[in-house]
Amino acid sequence: MSQKKSKKKRKNNPQLATEAAPRVEAVEREIPAAVPREMVTVYIMGKAYQVPAESTIMGAIEYAGYQIKRGAGCREGFCGACATVYRLPGDFKIYTGLACTTLVQDGMWLSQLPSIPAHKPVYDIEKLKPDITAFQQLYPEIFRCVACNTCTKACPQNLQVMDYIQAAIRGDIEKVMDLSFDCLCCGLCSIRCPAEIVHYNVGLLAKRLYGRYLAPRSQELELRLQEIRSGKYDKEYKKLMKMSREELKKLYYARDIEEEKE
Amino acid sequence: MYPEYMRPSLKKVEETRPKRFELQKSGKPVFPPMTAQEREEVLRKFHPDYRPDALRQVRIGPNKGEMMTREVADLLESHSRIDPTKFDLTRPDYETDILIIGGGGAGCAAAIIARQHGVKCIISTKLRLGDANSMMSQGGMQAAVTPQDSPTRHYLDAIGGGHFDNKPELVRALTEDGPEVVKWLEDLGVIWDKRPDGNNYVLHGGGTSRRRMHSCRDYTGAIIMRTLMDEVRNHPEDITVLEFMPTIELILDHQGRCAGGILYNLETEEYFVVKAKATIIATGGFGRLHIRGFDTTNHYGATGDGLVIAYRAGAKLLYMDSVQYHPTGAVFPEQIAGFLITEKIRGAGGQPVNRHGELFVFPKEPRDVESAAIIRECLERKNGIETPSGRVGVWLDSPLIEMLHGEGYIARNFPAMYRQFIRYGIDITKEPMLTYPSLHYQNGGIEINEKCETNIPGLYVAGEASGGVHGRNRLMGNSVLDYNVFGRRAGKYAAEYAKNVKLGRLTLEHVIAFERELKKAGIKTNRIAPILLPLYTPEEVRKRQLTARYEGTLR
Fold first, then answer.
1. CATH classification of A2-25+36-112, choosing from 3.30.200.20, 3.40.50.150, 3.10.20.30, 2.60.40.10?
2. Which pLDDT does position A261 carry in this prediction?
3. Which of A79, A236, A237, A262 to mutate to test the interface with B (most CBs of B within 10 A)?
4. Percent share of chain B, pLDDT over 90
5. Which residue, among B6, B30, B34, B46, has the nearest Cα to B351 in the 3D structure?
6. What ipTM was predicted for this assembly?
7. Where are the domains of chain A?
8. What is the pLDDT, as a whole number, of residue A36?
9. To bridge B498 with a disulfide, which of A256, B18, B277, B297 should be the other Cys (CB 3.0-4.6 Å)?
10. How far B380 CA sits from the closest chain A CA (Å)?
11. What letters, b where the CB count within 10 A reaches 16 and e where it falls short, cover B242-264?
């Protein structure tokens, strides 16, 4: 029914599947007439809708008429708010992706996950040690990992999720940090895990432990902090803050620029 | 994959690359930086803020009579979501020391510091904790740490980039606190990119005279934001997080001091009264207003809510005539139109070039100048490349980066960017990206001093919602620094204030008065604000929603 109703293409939609608003700058350039769009059928939570073939899942959901409250965030693949599961026709597999960066396919059957139930133990980073004991204390369930690799397959960032859980089991903080660096905390790994591990929180813990305890410290930073605390820049600040616009301008345009080279 | 018709232009970019590589390697500017006069001219002629219809006078409120970006003036001249007479303010649903509005970088930093000063907070956030532009910054954070740099030099760069309109005491706070913030974040567990000697790896950004951009690959914001969020969540006894619960009005007491807010549960549609001794607005910016129809790099929730509620309560705004367009938003493929392509790409040696493969601007001008130069190249000089959907852009030559720093550099340092494009069959280590300016940042905001105080006692503002730090143009890497510096300051000063204040009778009289003012000025409008979410429901759907009740853009 809804499929039939929505067959007609929606035109002049200011927020097409890609939310491209009409652009004044573009209008002034005389845009060539829009190319007619190819449409595909997607099943949003089981209901069929016709949407432009080049849509992202998020664009398709909005094109269909939903107003997203849960399930949209940065819309650029950084925040992990739009975890989505889907199946494709003639294929038994469950696929996972971010709605904001995954394109629709004809016959796609999809649902967004409004939130991921996951535990986050409370801890004091000053009281943890950057080794295996931190994981033993806070995430003992990681030792139940059966190395099935489902988490890795579920990751929309293509991270080696299982590998970093295995690294955590060995207490290799640096490896966990490195492999989980680009994690968006969308939670798709955790939702698929038969061992009920909350991978992304394990990764986050490892990253904080690495930054806090294992990353080499900057000598330059310590020196600069001492200088600031000793009031070294007070006089120059006072001078600059009193300067007229013209004086500042002169100084600004005369300043030298550090070369690019190391 | 780029369409066939773009091939000849791509070929030209390839042909000119070796020469541009030599130029880049020399370490000298690859194109002459503009003089003051040249900057002024290109801005006047091509920056969207300077279009004759870009601004209009705001007719009511604390800034009455001032010229503002049209869409902002519209937003301010709108009705409240609530009827103030329906609230019993003598029986608040929540009481706390500090109400923090917004759960992004500034809000979380404020909560962490406020807690250390011995007070309790509620974070009211419209979406999830950390759903904010803070999460999305890629390139880095400025802080003057290297021996050849200094905080005062950072000061000069920032104030020059802002066209000398920045408030001096705010720029001092920003630049002087910078190194401390680098350390604070590292102590919390942020992983800065390092040189082998342990010192931080730093790059140039637009308008910097020293390399001072600290980064976490190109997930800088994501790493910092998730660290701050995690720390907030480690203190549930002191910091209560209310998600999907935006604050839609401020509450004052009978002496005009800020005393909390009205919160709205987006899901159950209930309203709640929160009484707080101090309030911090950390709601971020307004990219989702799609000013002048531009695409935006911004988060779904960036609808300028804090401006609206502060203005209604009598807070003064600053520089609301100025909008930042990021020079390099994606224009192809269509699905990622408007997406941010970090300035760090140019910091690492990526060059903007036109359809002929020619350089036309110094790649590291301040953002407004760089943007205006790109618009000029496309619109006046017709040297842009058109996309199949009718957009236009210039190339951002990323393969140069691999030539300069060696193979694998992009995979290591720009994993997010690489992912963004390879999905569509574009390998940015081999082919350039097509870019055009995209709506990026609210330069102005609610006026604050170096303690984050506003003209309303008890109301503090931090981050993008505030005005004055960046003058009329923010430099790259100063917003990540801004939300940390001023988030921390807001937390500290609001906590000190909250310990001493004795609130009087609570009131929403200012909302009623604002409504009267609207009427008196003869403003007839259906607009309701804060709008909370942008409206992306297609027109044809809305026509069929015969029983839907829209409250502004929210149904």
1. 3.10.20.30
2. 62
3. A79
4. 95
5. B30
6. 0.94
7. 2-25+36-112, 125-214, 220-253
8. 61
9. B277
10. 10
11. bbbbbbbbbbbbeebbbbbbbbb
